[in-house]
Amino acid sequence: MLIHSDYIEYETKKQTPVAEKIEESLKSGRLEEALTAFMAVESVDEANPEDTIEKTASEIEKVATQVKTNRIMLYPYAHLSSDLSSPKVAVKVLKGIETALSGKYEVKRAPFGWYKAFSISCKGHPLSELSRSIRPEGTQKAAGKVEAGGEKEEVVSEALKAEGTAKSYWRILTPDGELHEIENFDLTPYPKLQQFVNYEISKSRAVERAPPHVELMRRLELADYEPGSDSGNMRYYPKGRLIKALLENYVLDVATDFGAMEVETPIMYDMNHPTLKKYLDRFPARQYSIESDKRHMFLRFAACFGQFLMNHDMTISYRNLPLRMIEMTRYSFRKEQRGELVGLRRLRAFTMPDMHSLCEDMDQAVDQFKKQYDLCINVLENIGIHIKDYEVAIRFTKDFYESNKELVVNMARTVDKPVLVEMWDTRFFYFVLKFEFNFVDALAKASALSTVQIDVENAERYDISYVNADGKLERPTVLHCSPSGAIERCIYALLEKAAMETEEGKVPMLPVWLSPTQVRIVPISEKHVAFAEEVSQKLDCRVDIDDRDLSIGKKVREAGREWVPYVVVIGDKEIENGTINVTIRAESEQNKPKKVQITPEELNDRIKGEIAGKPYRKLPLSKYLSGRPKFV
């Protein structure tokens, strides 16, 4: 854990049985304007202490350069881990880091194995609190090696390793085209952007408690954890399955209108296929691996493999370009780390709409990139996630930026707000340009939704070519696009957004086209049920009837807890007049419902206008609530 501090000071109080012997001068210490590195040496570091020393010193140097300090305090802090190394190795590593940094910096090291009192004053800027996890070489077993009991060690790609060590520059890009150093940019007017900046730079993905959407997904009977499966694999109840299906259909409809052809490819591939093996090392993700007929297989984490192998076998003309294909990958698999798995935010099995576009050259790719950027904005807008609800990250190589500044600046202008930029001197991955729309939740954790990437490697790697106007073969430039991001994350974002709006005093709800029940009819007594059925027949939407033997107040309250957009109460007055009493959730305030007296036909017209152009599915449960089971 790295803290940029105004000052750090400590004083030893009592030694433990494993305390190192120290001189009197080391029993207290103070540094001002210092980077403090709180460290715990773990058992895994015993395999290669020298590499741990080298990597840790390098990481501390990077951060010291970023925060512009030449003073470093090394502070052993065993509370950071429950899997500590032996005291002997810990002292060796700590002293080694001290030696590696001395000469370049003013370094102080607090002694190991002593109870200490300390005071620290954190500066509070976006780079002042960071965390890093260092893993030495030699601790990651080779791909495909079977451990005791037949369980495979996870496979970690070279790209994922590079992601942890790649040197990048973080900046804020404003719509006027100016790049600002983060520590010199006032993020106060942009609290969500500040949270996103902190999240990205700290690289801390683990969560300490469940975010609000976890309670909501259960209470609304959408989804839940599946204890009978691997962590990060969820169960979806009828209402949740309905919402997923509607989102999947919507994104596929949009992609088809955009000119993409829907395909389907396998979920399992040969780890030792020469082309796939090379690509695995270029993608920053952890894979599930399994044995099948003595072959080492992996479960896909995207649709790239299948679509690129298909492209390899196709005959493609320049007249076909840009050529777009999409697959709704139910499922993609990533072996995310356990501490990061929570609710629908980060999963090991997820549904990803994955579109790839083959373009003639970089000029056509840039043109497509612009159009797909706008496409992603529109997709999220129609789902109910607006520009104000997410933060934009743009990542690129320095060379690409210098040749395409206007493209990058226009991305900030389009959303009309500052965006986070990450720039690399050297290209570590297969893309030269990438953006993500990131939703920041109630716990200040960010999750990427839509993304588009310009890929300059895989046409060559997969031997994909097209016939140009002169009849010669050429390599296309490839775009990767997920118009919405993972479908589960869209649900997560909608629920988190609703939870945060509730805190602001607003009434939470889902968009009407995604609401499992769009209209609930509540008859006051049994004699009003027949008329409730008549009204339901006049509504072309998902309508149910609460015929349970409960008080009218309880029925209405439960409809509110289920976020039903329109609640219709029917009694003698409604039967007599032929009109209905409707509570409109979207126009209500907390403790102040908006009620209108209208005809069933008027309500039907209103709902048809709200869901026009969106996919539709029938009610996923019994029309009468008395016939429904409870899932949670």
How would you characterize the overall build of this protein?
The protein is α+β, with helices and mostly antiparallel strands and 632 residues long. The chain has three domains: 2-130, D-tyrosyl-trna(Tyr) Deacylase, Chain: A (3-Layer(bba) Sandwich); 167-266 and 300-494, BirA Bifunctional Protein, domain 2 (2-Layer Sandwich), CATH 3.30.930.10; 512-627, Rossmann fold. Helix content is 31%, strand content 28%. It has 17 helices and 30 strands. The protein has a ten-stranded mixed β-sheet. Strands 1, 2, 3, 4, 5 and 6 form a six-stranded mixed β-sheet that branches. Helix 5 (212-219) packs across helix 13 (487-503) and helix 6 packs across helix 13. The protein is globular, with a radius of gyration of 28 Å. The chain starts with a strand and ends in a 21-residue tail after the last helix.
> Low-confidence parts, pLDDT < 50 over ≥5 residues?
140-154
Mean pLDDT: 91
N→C terminal distance: 40 Å
Beta-strand content bin: 25-35%
E-strand count: 30
How large is the count of helical segments?
17
CATH superfamily of the largest domain: Bira Bifunctional Protein, Domain 2
The dominant shape is globular
State the helicity in percent bands.
25-40%
Q: What is the annotated CATH architecture of the largest domain?
A: 2-Layer Sandwich
Please identify the oligomeric state. single chain
Structural class: alpha+beta
Number of domains: 3
Order of strands across the main sheet: 9-8-20-19-21-22-25-18-17-12
Cα-based radius of gyration, to the nearest Å: 28 Å
CATH class designation of the largest domain:
Alpha Beta
